[in-house]
Amino acid sequence: MIAPHSRADSHTFSLVTRDKPGVLVRIALVFSRRGFNIESLAVSPGRVDGFARMTIVSRGAGETVEQINKQLAKLIDVVFVTDHAGEQPIEAEIAVIKVRSSGEAEKVALLAPMERYRARVVEESEGRVVIIADGTSAELDALIASLPAETIEELIRTGKIVMDRGASHFAHLLGRAD
Fold first, then answer.
1. CA-wise closest residue to 20 among 55, 51, 60, 43
2. How many domains would you assign to the chain?
3. pTM above 0.85?
């Protein structure tokens, strides 16, 4: 039997890569070969044309993380990689949640905690309410836990994105030093 994962074995990796076809596949293979499951992945264009930013959240044995970092750094199209273990970067995630409500009283009760979680209603129709919220992964976990499970019809989350606090650790690699 496989032991359940804990928050302690969760790792958040930030990468800067060349923005080319096939890069994501090679990165995913590094995780797969080491038995790490990618829980969330966010990719976007970087500040400099031709480069992309990736945030990958994965779980696996801690002793393997250093090896993953080394193998990612060896990939030709990876410019920078770091594991944020032990750091407290700025973190954000977005959730879109569709909940069912059978009447006005139930809808009011469902929406009561929304302000506390920076959530807002983006659509109401046919006994359903669509909510969008942003915050840390923990804040979104708490929001979702505050909703009765049987009312959640649909849920999608972007996955975590992170940015280091203070000066950039890699800007100089792209010819952009502060």
1. 51
2. 2
3. no
